[in-house]
Amino acid sequence: MPSKKIQHILESQQFNRHWLLTQFFPEVARMKRLVEVKGVSSALSDKTVCLLFYEPSTRTRISFEQAAQKLGAKIASTENASEFSSAIKGESLADTIRVINSLKFDAVVIRSDMEGGAVEAANVSQIPIINAGDAAGQHPTQALLDVYTIFEHFKRLDNLKVALVGDLKNGRTTRSLAYLLGKFKKIHFDLVAPAAFQMKQDILDYFDRHNISHKRTKSLESVADQVDVVYLTRLQKERLKKNSKVNGNGVRLNDKVMAILNKKSIILHPLPRSDGFNEL
Ligand code: NCD
Predict the structure, then answer these.
(1) Which of 3, 35, 178, 260, CA to CA, is 20 to 30 A from 11?
(2) Tens of pLDDT along 188-226?
């Protein structure tokens, strides 16, 4: 973890290869065993966590709640904070975070509807802010989970070919995953998306700065026989203009792709899958 005083989780670049391999993964394995064997723990029994979700969520919110509760923490949660919090009355995010601080919570899990919202929250917070997705920005905790899943399967994260597929422009999971997997050695990315949904320049610049091998393509079929990981994502409809025309050809895991897919490869999807691209 970075040596900042308050240990926020804001973007996946803040983590490094060494920490993931030597501290995070062993700790996740320990927690997994704990859940399987004991079900619960009292590790956080003196803690309270505030969950502040301004955008829709099923898995992320429920799994944060479940994790906090299984570790003995108490939670306060608002699942539609843009309507059911004082945001609708015009309160700024900074003020909301200041109030949560004054109520002596131990951490805030936030899904902001603004890119950079988690950073904005962290700027005024004395307690850790955990970014559970900031609009089209990042989703670092999903990326931590994804790299663990890949690591568990291959027992390595170096020397992998990874296809990131779908709405790479608006999807925050692929952005965070690109930053995080980019920390490993000899990683190659195939960025598979229709032209209008390709990865944004900040990630391409990051790849270039760190000499990370990558190729852009419109067709999953063209790379399916070579990749170790296929990471599919949905069309982020909510970030498009109404009635935008989209064509999911090329980013679908159809029979043709399945027939040529490298048999040792694994398929991941952060979910939800949807009929926008009908990718899975
Ligand atoms: C993703 C998200 O919210 O960014 N879901 C998740 O957290 N697992 C993926 C998505 O919405 O497409």
Answers:
(1) 35
(2) 999 999 999 999 999 999 999 999 999 999 999 999 999
